[in-house]
Amino acid sequence: MYSHKYINKNLVIHSDEVLPQNIKSITDEVLMRLKKSELYIPNKTYNVYIPTDYWRWGLVSMPIGYQHVGAFCIGYNHNVFFRPSVIAENRIIPPWGELADSKERDLVYFITHELGHAMIFDRVGVISNFTELPQWMQEGYPDYIAKESFDFEDNLQQFKNNEWRLTEESGLYVQYHLFVSLLIDKKGYKLEELLKNAPSKTEVIKILESYSVKK
């Protein structure tokens, strides 16, 4: 179903059409972000399937009710399936309307985010990921490594103001990213510590509420 592919080191992009010239810069950027994580393993091969026709996406997403998401990762085999996208423009085609935070959430972001899930699966196991890790860690860490930059203080203020993009209802995971950034960047938690014994959401919010930005 995907007759074209591009290989950049251990990252393989599969498509149903000839891949555009910017696929090298896209995959270079994805790999650069992945390599910043201690979970990255160079000899693991990651396969990413990006269609242009909706039926290919529907074939894999509808049986599990995922047709309205941007992409998803399948367990230990590191396969990531995308909804229809425009690779030449570095973007996915959202299920409806405009994509929220579209500048931050380009195709590079989505590929890196989903492979972040794959790396967590490798470290803790697929079952443990869903049964032992709190959701804020499941989604917050992939978001943490997937974005090019993150303004902690600005997002903290948005969280305190209960702005929509910092709520769980937004589905953007920015709140969870804020939690991870707080614990790793501000409080000095180690990633391995969070993967083994992550505090609850309630505990993280208490830490966040007591955090004061140093001027």
Output the keywords:
alpha/beta; single chain; globular; 9 helices
Provide an overview of this structure.
This protein is an alpha/beta fold. It has helices at residues 23-35, 54-61, 107-124, 126-131, 135-146, 152-160, 174-186, 191-197, 201-210, and strands spanning 4-8, 11-15, 46-50, 71-74, 79-82, 85-86, 91-92. The strands form 2 sheets. The protein has a 5-stranded mixed beta sheet with strand order 1-2-3-5-4, sandwiched between helices. The protein has a two-stranded antiparallel ribbon with strand order 6-7. α1 (23-35) links the parallel β2 and β3. The termini are far apart.
Largest sheet: 5 strands, mixed
User: Could you tell me how far the N terminus lies from the C terminus, measured between alpha carbons in angstroms?
Assistant: 55 Å
Query: Can you tell me the residue ranges where pLDDT is under 50 for at least 5 consecutive residues?
Result: none
Helix content: 40-55%
Number of helices: 9
Task: Please write the string of helix (H) and strand (E) elements.
Answer: EEHEHEEEEHHHHHHH
Strands ordered across the widest β-sheet: 1-2-3-5-4
Percent of residues in β-strands? 5-15%
Query: Helix- and strand-based class?
Result: alpha/beta
Radius of gyration: 17 Å
